[in-house]
């Protein structure tokens, strides 16, 4: 396991700001409101020539009951157990508070390595708090400003002697980034299977609040990785975990619930706005999205809105009906889902649907099989030869209609991209091409080349008329 740092401190001292600074990306949500971070977030950090893993944690609270604050504290304690060094963060401008003293004492009892960081030291207002920090008994405080990147050289000097020699020179290289991966692998059906196993599938769990998304993630990972509970809207950050399922690398992401705008509380709308933006960005970067439904309210208007957004982004979709063990009439529930999909989402026929119970861990194997299968379809490439043997048969069965008294001519088709399958159709009148005939061809592609359940895009291209610009 790589050298790991855990950022610890009371609420609203700048832990997520420091996390974003160390990983070099704005991945953790940051706001002046205390308690924005609830789950622990893990990222790959780098300072100068030092590479490490860094964990952002929730603010330490003095709570030991069954409350949300107590569960957040347990997540922080789990992060501390994983860490080689704890970075105890205080707000130097606010000075040392009784809560800072309490948790500094708690950290000393843990017996691990601790570095004391005095944050927000970019001005003279922090000088008094910096001097007070000596009283915490954690050694010399390191003055930093996470927001402005000041003092990080001193942090590097303090970390260097604590890191194993082999980690000092380790490069902080991640796996292949999807943006650098070539979409095209020639005219084969899919990419190489062995290479595909090593390339992680980006799998996002999405849905309305309180449908069991975090419970499903914990059930798949078989550990209490993210906070769960009866409260709606516990998850705020999109929490990603690298995982392996039957040899296939997967980057699994739990997301915040997406509610209708009319139901958002005006007091919390700023934080929820950031959470929604984080979820939408996760969908955009995902390969496969599992839309989790509550069996008690299958495919309501908000579920359909989320599903349409996934399809518009070109992602593969799997629908999972949670709490299936509580349903009395299974046949009626499935008919209801099928009717709504046929009437509201005819553009993606064949979306795989799985019934599960995340709390009981039932049928999770079937869910993951559906994820892997739809991912293969989403990556599928069709050769140009079979496409252009298929096209004349489609034109003969239903010839294109007349447009402005002229017959549409469709000359050629080829697949130009996968993820999702995208085809270029060379036609005579691209701007006048009827949507109804385009849907006919898309449905034919889906049925003839086994592309059920994934979005299909068709780009119309019109050859340039060589005589158009001549007098």
Structure keywords:
471 residues; elongated; 33% helix; alpha/beta; 14 helices; single chain; six-stranded mixed sheet
Explain the overall architecture.
The structure is a single chain. This protein has 471 residues and is α/β, with parallel strands linked by helices. It has 14 helices and 17 strands. The chain has helices spanning 15-23, 68-82, 98-110, 127-132, 152-159, 165-168, 193-198, 213-221, 269-285, 301-312, 330-344, 364-378, 384-397, 435-448; strands at residues 4-8, 41-47, 50-56, 85-91, 113-119, 142-143, 201-207, 239-245, 248-254, 288-294, 316-322, 353-355, 402-403, 406-407, 410-417, 422-427, 457-461. It is elongated and about 85 Å long. The N and C termini lie far apart (72 Å).
* Cα-atom radius of gyration: 27 Å
Strand content: 15-25%
- Strand element count: 17
Spatial order of the strands in the main sheet?
2-3-1-4-5-6
Q: Report the total helices.
A: 14
Q: How much helix, percentage-wise, in residues? A: 25-40%
Structural class comes to alpha/beta
Topology readout:
Elements: E1 4-8, H1 15-23, E2 41-47, E3 50-56, H2 68-82, E4 85-91, H3 98-110, E5 113-119, H4 127-132, E6 142-143, H5 152-159, H6 165-168, H7 193-198, E7 201-207, H8 213-221, E8 239-245, E9 248-254, H9 269-285, E10 288-294, H10 301-312, E11 316-322, H11 330-344, E12 353-355, H12 364-378, H13 384-397, E13 402-403, E14 406-407, E15 410-417, E16 422-427, H14 435-448, E17 457-461
Parallel strand pairs: 1-3, 1-4, 4-5, 5-6, 7-9, 7-10, 10-11, 11-12, 16-17
Antiparallel strand pairs: 2-3, 8-9, 13-14, 15-16
């Amino acid at each position: 396991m790589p050298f790991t740092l855990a950022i610890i401190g009371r609420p609203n001292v700048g832990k997520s700001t420091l996390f974003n600074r160390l990983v070099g990306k704005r991945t953790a949500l940051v706001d002046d409101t205390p308690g924005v971070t609830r789950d622990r977030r893990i990222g790959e950090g780098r300072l100068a020539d030092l590479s490490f893993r860094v964990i952002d944690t929730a603010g330490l609270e003095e709570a030991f009951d069954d409350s949300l604050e107590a569960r957040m504290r347990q997540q922080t304690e789990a992060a501390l157990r994983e860490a080689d060094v704890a970075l105890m963060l205080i707000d130097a401008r606010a000075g040392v508070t009784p809560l800072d003293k309490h948790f500094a004492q708690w950290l000393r009892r843990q017996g691990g390595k601790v570095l004391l960081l005095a944050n927000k030291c970019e001005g003279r207002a922090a000088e008094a708090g910096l001097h007070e920090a000596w009283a915490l008994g954690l050694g010399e405080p390191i003055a930093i400003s996470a927001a402005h990147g000041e003092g990080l050289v001193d942090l590097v000097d303090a970390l260097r002697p604590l890191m194993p020699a082999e980690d000092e020179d380790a490069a902080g290289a991640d796996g292949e980034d999807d943006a650098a991966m070539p979409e095209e692998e020639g005219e084969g059906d899919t990419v190489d299977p062995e290479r595909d196993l090593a390339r992680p599938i980006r799998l996002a769990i999405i849905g309305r609040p309180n449908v069991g998304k975090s419970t499903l993630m914990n059930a798949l990972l078989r550990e209490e990785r993210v906070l769960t509970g009866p409260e709606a809207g516990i998850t705020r950050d999109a929490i990603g975990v690298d995982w392996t399922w039957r040899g296939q690398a997967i980057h699994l992401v739990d997301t915040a619930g997406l509610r209708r705008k009319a139901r958002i509380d005006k007091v919390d709308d700023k934080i929820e706005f950031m959470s929604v933006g984080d979820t939408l960005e996760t969908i955009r970067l995902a390969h496969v999205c599992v839309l989790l439904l509550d069996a008690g309210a299958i495919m309501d208007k908000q579920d359909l809105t989320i599903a349409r957004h996934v399809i518009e982004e070109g992602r593969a979709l799997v629908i999972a009906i949670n709490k299936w063990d509580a349903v009395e009439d299974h046949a009626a529930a499935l008919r209801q889902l099928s009717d709504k999909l046929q009437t509201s989402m005819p553009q993606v026929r064949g979306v795989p649907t799985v019934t599960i119970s995340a709390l009981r861990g039932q049928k999770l194997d079937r869910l993951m099989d559906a994820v892997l299968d739809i991912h293969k379809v989403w990556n599928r490439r069709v050769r140009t030869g079979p496409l252009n043997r298929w096209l004349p048969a489609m034109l003969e069965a239903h010839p294109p209609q007349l447009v402005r008294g002229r017959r549409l001519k469709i000359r050629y088709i080829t697949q130009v991209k996968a993820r999702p399958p995208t085809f270029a159709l060379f036609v005579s009148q691209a701007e006048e091409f009827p949507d109804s005939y385009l849907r006919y061809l898309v449905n034919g592609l889906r049925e003839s080349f086994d592309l059920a359940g994934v979005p299909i895009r068709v780009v119309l291209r019109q050859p340039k008329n060589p005589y158009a610009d001549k007098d």
